[in-house]
Amino acid sequence: MAKYVLKRVLLLIPTLLVVTTIVFALMRLVPGSAAHVILGEQGETITEEAVEALEDEMGLNDPLVVQYVRYLKNIFTGNWGNSYLTGTPVFQSILDVWEPTLLITIYSTLITVIVAIPLGILAATHRNSPLDLLVSSTSMVAMVVPVFCLGLLATFYFGFKLRWFPTVGYTPIAEGGLWKSLYCLTLPSIVLGLNHVGSLVRYTRSTMLDVLGQDYIRTARAKGLSKNKVYYKHALKNTMSIVATLIANSIVSMLGGATVTETVFNIRGMGKLAVQSLERRDYEQEQAIVLLMAFIFLGVQVLMDVFYKVLDPRIEYE
Length: 318
Description:
By secondary structure, this protein is an all-alpha fold.
């Protein structure tokens, strides 16, 4: 097991190298120039000469190969660069806004798991019943409604009408404590979590039905074991080893989905920082955010492999 985990960790290096290459290329394909944005925000006259001079100073006129090699060298030496617009290290900018994004992701994941897995099990154990039809129909609606639309509806009803939750802004933990921060993020977390509930409900249901059709489940029933013991001790354990894959993918998807919820609820997090960096052509900042997201995704995949082994010791890694 330890040998396999070490091998997977080493495989992160070429994967991250591919990610950095793609991100670097895509950022250079985005129309516009960071020099235009900088000169505009400084209130200076934007002329071709001024833009050319600033791009020379920033190294943006160097050949792409030179820029790419310099970028890789900085990454491997721990210098991920400074923001073109603020001049602050890109990691410092990320640390300033990471808290709400991380909390939304964790909060949304908990909501998704707590709601979706029990509903999926109920739908599977009551197959073709009115309850199964209701759960399946509701989960389909949750899947097709866009996050921004659900967010606006939730803001209007639960924020303006009922006034249960704040509709905009975020109070950091250092200022209001953990519970105050979670209260501010409850509505966006519910919105983001419900968008993933539908797919997890349907996946749990289909996986549970497959497991319930296995021979060992029929044997357990023939031995006279209670339904709860068959469902939750034998079937659920094997279902979770498969459903965990979707949960892992949902975590990463929620990191990306936080961009929409942060925009709708006006929360300054990593997602909103990524959008602003892209709009302002802040290459260094955008590349750092995407690379960090990729590292988190790959790290979650490794953790899921370890989780599979815990759930099912029969799994062998070579």
